[in-house]
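Translate sequence into structure tokens.
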Amino acid sequence: MKLTVYHDGQFWVGVIELNDGGKLKAGRYLFGSEPKDQEILDFVNNHLLGFCRQLSQEVSVGFTERRAINPKRIARMAAREMNKPGVASAAHQAIQLEYEKRKKERKTFTREQKEQLKEYKREIARQKAKAKHRGK
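Result follows.
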């Protein structure tokens, strides 16, 4: 699991990448104004797992298994990651898929709501017509 926090020009955004057996799930969390270390730590400790459970879209990525890595090498790799700008394209693709999925869900929900409202209005009109016909 990897959390990358960056400034996208307007807001501070956290991108969560979850690698699970060759499948990559990614999500985007909006922090708003510049988050303090305590806010990020609070997010990681309290909200990260719930956020990861919501992620459903997966992108298959070819990952290779690695052997044990020297701690000094890990420190150098972490320093390189800190200097690297932006977010991985695979994570971006997973975020885009998640966004599209939510957009479709929202559209279907809105369409159903509109249809229910139309049906309700039709039923009211029918009842009024029947009442009028009966002379009430």
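Note: The mean pLDDT is 82.
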